[in-house]
Amino acid sequence: WVFISLNLWVFLAWQLPLSQDEANSYFSIYGFTPRSFFAQLTDPNPHAIVWEWCTAFTSMFSHGDVFHLLGNMLFLYLFGDNLEDAMGKVRYVIFYLCCGLLAALAQGLADPNSTIPMVGASGAISGVMAGYLLLYPRANVRFFYWLFVFFGTIYLPAYLVLGFWLVEQFIALPESMEQASGVAIAAHLGGFGAGLILTPIFK
Question: Assign residue 147 a region: left if phi > 0, alpha if psi is -120 to 50, beta otherwise?
């Protein structure tokens, strides 16, 4: 709930009032930009080094628009509480931030020359989803479907829902690398991989 509240507060209090030009400036300052991040490795300025590492964290509490925000918060709400119960509050906080950091680094390594700022909590949440998949693979997830005029909800095991999502990410990865699709697929996969590695350590 604290993570969800922080994301909502940053968007409503800091981002929503901004004009388009101000929003672009906000993203360039608080977003994770791979080219700027790797440039600090050759810059002896301590302030630049510290700030570039900070953007890996500020970016995970910023979002592109309201749909981006609500989609991420829905997944965090669905999967985060069970993982927090398994790890404990302090370990869960560290786990979440580590997954977000490693997700940002994965996106940066995938395209180190990119000048497009990355924002969003999806990298960290991907780590949460990986942890949920490891600990609760057969837990039922309520799934909404809509097929022409038919719609409703069904319950599917977590390994099917998250497995389908993971396959979808791998399919979308090549296109996201060739074009500026606006979706940081490498960050999703990096966060998911971090979650798989870190969950047995933090549980």
Answer: beta
> 57 with 101: CB under 8 angstroms?
yes
Cβ neighbourhood burial of 58 (10 Å; 0-12, 13-18, 19+): middle
The pTM of the full predicted model, rounded to 2 decimals, is 0.90
Tell me the one-letter amino acid at 152.
G
- Distance in angstroms (rounded) separating the CA atoms of residues 47 and 125: 29
Helix count and strand count (H, E) for the chain = 9, 2
Distances (CA, A) of 78 to 1, 18, 51, 100, 165: 11, 30, 32, 18, 15
Output 77-86 pairs: Cβ under 8 A, ≥24 positions apart. Answer: 77/4, 78/141, 79/125, 79/128, 79/129, 79/131, 79/132, 80/3, 80/125, 80/128, 82/132, 82/135, 82/136, 82/139, 83/128, 83/131, 83/132, 83/135, 83/199, 86/131, 86/135, 86/203
User: 74-88: per-residue pLDDT in tens?
Assistant: 999 999 999 999 999
Q: Which of 126, 135, 133, 81 is nearest to 104 (CA)?
A: 126
List, as one string, the DSSP characters of 106-120: HHHHHSTT--SPB--
The kind and range of the H/E element at 151 are strand 150-157
pLDDT digits 0-9 by tens, 95-107: 999 999 999 999 9
